[in-house]
Amino acid sequence: MTAAATAHGPAAAPAPRTRTGGPDEGSDLLEHVLGWALVVLVAVLVTRLGLL
């Protein structure tokens, strides 16, 4: 390491993250249920349209 690299102190702590208006954490069950419902819906549409 060079002297310039060691002359600086420890890095500053990152700023706290701001919320972007997304869903609150902890809705994992609802997220999984809706995800699987979407998978089933796409599968039904694909088979009904004869794409498989």
What does this protein structure show overall?
By secondary structure, this protein is mainly alpha-helical. It is 50% helix and 0% strand. The chain has 2 helices and no strands. It is elongated and about 65 Å long. 0% of the residues are buried. The mean pLDDT is 79.
Q: Assign an overall shape.
A: elongated
Main sheet attributes: strand count, strand direction, barrel closure: none
Q: How many strand units?
A: 0
Which consecutive residue ranges, at least 5 long each, have pLDDT under 50? none
Distance N terminus to C terminus? Answer: 60 Å
Give the quaternary arrangement of the chains. single chain
| Radius of gyration, in angstroms, nearest whole number | 24 Å
Fraction in beta strands: under 5%
Number of helices: 2
In which range does the helix fraction lie? Answer: 40-55%
Summary, kept brief:
This protein is mainly alpha-helical.
Q: What descriptive keywords fit this protein?
A:
52 residues, 0% strand
Topology:
Layout lengths: L2 H5 L20 H21 L4
